Structures are given as structure tokens and as C-alpha cells.
């Protein structure tokens, strides 16, 4: 079995979380394209602990269940990604909601994404406290976010540039962490 990378530094943690998110995107697309089907889950497997062995029997998923679970997996991976990125950015010190520089905006947008997932990872909602209800822009990454406009609404990737904007935000954060390290 191939070894999974460990996460010993903030850069490694963010890279691993991005990889998990991208894998879940790929899985989501594969399920919805019919490439992963109920027949993919035909083998039982075991989870062994010091106390007992738990056998997970074959599960019969309906296609609609597979699509729902693939969507939930995508949301869970995005939630993990939000936590990891926000935590890694604390390397720069405490957050400052008044900081609208590119780095400050990236940190504040990342924190708002984390907060959106915090109370319900499967139905994220913007919960922007008054001090974060402002416009943030990362000019270098062409990403914008309006905390006042989004507050209280369901999270949509379009609120911060769609999946492309999210990837630009992640690339910006990863580069900032790399630059700090060097």
C-alpha cells in the first residue's frame, strides 16, 4: 500500500487537505458520471481493534444514496480543508478582521469559510460576526468576498469566486506559507 504523506508543517497540512478535497471532487464527479456504482461496494471488510474485530458487510447502496454520500464526502473534505487552512494561517499570528491587505483578506475569507462549516458541515451557512461583515479582496488572486452580503445565507462557492476562486485562494495561502518558511 502506498504511504500517505504526513503533515508535520503548515505547508504539508494544507497540501494534504487540498489533495483530500481534490480527491473528493474526483470521486463526486465519478459517482455522478456512473463510474462508481453500487456494485463497487461488494466486498465485506474488517476493522480490528485490541478488543474486537468489526466486520463491515456488503452494503447495498441505491444510486441516489451514492450521489448523496459523494456530495456529503465533498462537503466534509471542504470542511476539513477550511479548518486546516485557517489553522495553518495562524502561523502569521492572530487574525485581524480590519486587515484588508491581500494576506489579511485571505486569512479572513478562510476564517469565514471555516465558520460557515463549523455548525453544520453538510449544510454550511455564513455566520459572519459584525466585525467580519465587510468586503475582502485578494487582488493578487482575483478573489472577493462580501461578509455583510453573505451573512446568514447558505454557503455557495460563487460567494468567493466559485471553485476556481477557491483554488486561487488556496494557491495564494499555500504560497504565503511557503514564502514565510523560506
What does this structure look like?
- It is a single chain.
- By secondary structure, the chain is mainly alpha-helical.
- The protein has five helices and four strands.
- The strands form two sheets. A two-stranded antiparallel sheet has the order 1-2.
- A hairpin with a 4-residue loop joins strand 1 and strand 2.
- Helix 1 packs antiparallel against helix 5.
- It is globular, with a radius of gyration of 19 Å.
- The model has no long low-confidence stretch (mean pLDDT 92).
Question: Secondary structure elements and their pairing?
Answer:
Layout: H1 10-32, E1 45-48, E2 53-56, H2 63-89, H3 102-118, E3 135-138, E4 143-146, H4 147-150, H5 162-181
Antiparallel strand pairs: 1-2, 3-4
Helix pairs in contact: 1-2, 1-5, 2-3, 3-5
Keywords:
two-stranded antiparallel sheet, 4 strands, globular, mainly alpha, 182 residues, single chain, 50% helix
What general form does the structure show? globular
Instruction: List low-confidence stretches.
Output: none
Briefly note the structural class of the backbone.
Answer: mainly alpha
Fraction of residues in β-strands: 5-15%
Helices and strands, in order, run as HEEHHEEHH
Largest sheet: 2 strands, antiparallel
Q: What is the terminal separation in angstroms? A: 33 Å
Tally of strands: 4
How confident is the prediction overall: mean pLDDT?
Answer: 92
Strand order of the largest sheet: 1-2
Please tell me how large the radius of gyration is.
Answer: 19 Å
- Tally the helices: what do you get? 5
Summarize the amount of helix as a percent range: 40-55%
Amino acid at each position: 500500500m502506498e504511504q500517505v504523506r504526513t503533515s508535520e508543517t503548515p505547508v504539508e497540512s494544507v497540501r494534504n487537505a487540498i489533495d483530500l478535497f481534490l480527491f473528493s471532487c474526483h470521486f463526486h464527479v465519478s459517482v455522478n458520471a456512473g463510474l462508481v456504482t453500487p456494485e463497487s461496494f461488494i466486498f465485506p471488510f474488517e476493522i480490528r481493534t485490541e478488543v474486537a474485530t468489526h466486520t463491515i458487510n456488503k452494503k447495498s447502496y441505491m444510486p441516489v444514496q451514492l450521489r448523496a454520500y459523494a456530495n456529503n464526502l465533498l462537503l466534509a473534505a471542504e470542511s476539513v480543508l477550511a479548518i486546516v487552512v485557517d489553522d495553518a494561517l495562524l502561523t502569521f499570528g492572530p487574525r485581524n478582521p480590519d486587515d484588508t491587505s491581500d494576506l489579511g483578506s485571505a486569512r479572513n475569507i478562510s476564517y469565514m469559510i471555516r465558520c460557515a462549516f463549523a455548525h453544520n458541515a453538510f449544510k454550511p451557512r455564513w455566520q459572519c460576526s459584525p466585525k467580519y461583515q465587510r468586503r475582502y479582496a485578494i487582488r493578487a488572486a482575483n478573489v472577493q468576498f462580501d461578509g455583510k452580503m453573505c451573512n446568514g445565507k447558505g454557503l455557495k462557492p460563487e460567494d468567493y469566486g466559485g471553485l476556481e476562486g477557491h483554488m486561487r485562494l488556496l494557491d495564494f495561502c499555500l504560497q504565503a506559507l511557503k514564502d514565510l518558511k523560506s
